[in-house]
Amino acid sequence: MRVWFITGASRGFGALIAAEALAAGDAVVATARNPADVTAKLGEHPRLLAAKLDITQESQAREAVEAAVQRFGRIDVLVNNAGFGLLGAVEEASAQDVERVFRTNVFGLLTVTRAVLPRMRQQRSGHILNFSSIGGYASAPGWGVYCATKFAVEGLSEAMAGELAPLGVHVTIVEPGYFRTDFLDGQSLAVSRERITDYDGTSGAIRQHAQVMNHSQPGNPAKLARAIVTLVNAPQPPLRLALGSDTLERIAEKNREVNRELEAWRALSLSTDGFEETQGAHA
């Protein structure tokens, strides 16, 4: 029996993954700001611990991890799922909005990870799943600040994967595309209050598109939850797992764009090598 520790488990991906893990016979520590919301969503279960956790609070993270170990003895899978979005042009985002989304999506993820890692290092085993997004691989107008947080998650995860592999701990970056969750609702998505008309054709159009797309996204969240259990069962899990046809398409498109640009500017890129003295170096 594996023990899962899942953040943001009262709804959306977190709740669905928790339910799938329980159905697979595993134990789950499902965390949320209000544990009663977890119980209301998942019910009572002998292998379920609903724990209070605001991921921005270090003391709560330590307490939730300690409660998990006291109840189940270990933590095998950490799912860093909690987070929210910010929609608007980069210039439209207030300093408060930027700080809030980074505090949750990046610093909160780090807080929980630092609380769990001593247990996994001691066990010499474990699997960390850091939820990124297609926006963590390819940014887009209207999502710049949100994507910046997910780019940070990807960079941290790549480094951790190298640091933890010798200790028996795997790290996987999960990159969902658009799924039919409540991500585009007010509970999970903040929208910049300032609206600059110069951006109506770019980020402004994305604002309108998000309203139309809400709850009609192509991805099936129940299938994502089952895919996560399959991922955890893999003896050699990948560093990245792209989920959704839209994600696969955008990754391929960006890779082509990067390769085209590399070739177009290759000569200038290579011209900066060498040991030629700069002019006036000995003046």
Condensed summary:
The protein has one domain: NAD(P)-binding Rossmann-like Domain (Rossmann fold), CATH 3.40.50.720. Helix 2 links the parallel strand 2 (27-32) and strand 3.
Secondary-structure topology with pairs:
Blueprint lengths: L2 E4 L5 H12 L3 E6 L2 H8 L5 E5 L5 H15 L4 E4 L4 E3 L7 H29 L2 E6 L12 H21 L4 E8 L12 E3 L11 H11 L7 H13 L6 E4 L1 H20 L1 H5 L13
Parallel strand pairs: 1-2, 1-4, 2-3, 4-6, 5-8, 6-7, 7-9
Helix pairs in contact: 1-7, 3-4, 4-5
User: Can you tell me the CATH architecture?
Assistant: 3-Layer(aba) Sandwich
Count of the separate structural domains? 1
What is the N-to-C order of secondary-structure elements (H for helix, E for strand)? Answer: EHEHEHEEHEHEEHHEHH
Any idea of the CATH topology?
A: Rossmann fold
The CATH class label is Alpha Beta
Given as residue ranges, the uncertain stretches (5+ residues, pLDDT < 50) are: none
CATH superfamily: NAD(P)-binding Rossmann-like Domain
Mean pLDDT value: 92
Structural description of this entry:
The chain has 283 residues and is of the alpha/beta class. The chain has one domain: Rossmann fold (3-Layer(aba) Sandwich), CATH 3.40.50. Helices cover 47% and strands 15% of the residues. The chain is built from nine helices and nine strands. The chain has helices at 12-23, 35-42, 58-72, 95-123, 144-164, 203-213, 221-233, 245-264, 266-270; strands spanning 3-6, 27-32, 48-52, 77-80, 85-87, 126-131, 169-176, 189-191, 240-243. The strands form two sheets. It has a seven-stranded parallel sheet, sandwiched between helices. A two-stranded parallel sheet has the order 5-8. Helix 4 (95-123) runs parallel beside helix 5 (144-164). The longest helix is centred in the middle third of the chain and has 29 residues, at 95-123. The protein is globular and about 70 Å long. The mean pLDDT is 92.
